[in-house]
Amino acid sequence: MTKIWGIILCMCFILSETCYAIQFSQPLKIGTIDFKQGGGVFISGAASNSVQFFPEIRRRYVKDDTFGAEKGIAHFGEGTDDLYLYYNTEKCLNIGGNALNNTISEDIWSSDIYQIQYSKTSFVYPIYDMKHNHIGNETRFETRSVYSIYNIKADYIIIGREINSLSRQFVKYIDTKEITKRYFGENTHVIYKNLSTQGDTIIIDYYSSGTKGKFYFKWDDKAQWFSVKQVIN
Q1: Which residues does UniProt assign to the signal peptide (predicted)?
Q2: Are 53 and 67 contacting, i.e. CB atoms less than 8 angstroms apart?
Q3: Which whole number is the average pLDDT over 116-141?
């Protein structure tokens, strides 16, 4: 009889663990941040945005008719798990909570901001950053003009408050720049795109030197972190 009760309790425990296992929603785009050369910072989608604009004398030297902010604080979301962006024209950004000591510092250029929900009031935030890196010049003989050549770098970082923790501290869970170093080498050109989820796993496609594949980031409840698996197509 004792063995039977033990089996029943074990099954109940397994079922309860399954019921409460993390399930990620599909990514939802909630905003953008864009740094314009000489034109300031442009924010869209924020619930609120405390902005300091350039002085008028500075604006006279910007050719574009629209002017972005010099610096500010943008607030996305509502409730206990919202996101704050502290930004300035140096392309430095602090992302995280409403206090600077609970943020993560990043250097980004032009980014889409997403949220992925995993409980009624809790989210992780993927940030998709695209950079155009100057790699040289070439002369177009038809026009005798010199054109700049760029390559595109596209990376994700995924941040969020510590899951299953009372500290509510923001951490960086995933950074594809670090994935590039680990799996391809530091100077390899890799483009990441097409973020999606499946159950407790975040999936990101990648392209590099004619090859492509996917990275699977599965939540490990015991480690309280994501495991990483590469699948080459």
Answers
A1: 1-21
A2: yes
A3: 74
CA distances from 21 to 7, 44, 198, 222, 229 (A): 21, 33, 13, 11, 19
Residue with tokens 């950004």: 93
For residues 72 and 51, is the Cβ–Cβ distance under 8 A?
Answer: yes
Global confidence as pTM: 0.79
Q: Contact 202/217 with Cβ under 8 angstroms? A: yes
Q: Which two tokens stand for residue 40?
A: 């300031």
Query: What's the rounded Cα separation, in Å, for the pair 122 and 84?
Result: 15
Tokens of 157: 């970082």
* DSSP string for 38-52: TTEEEEES-SEEEEE
Contacts of 233 (CB under 8 A, 6+ apart): 211, 212, 213, 214
DSSP state of 15: H
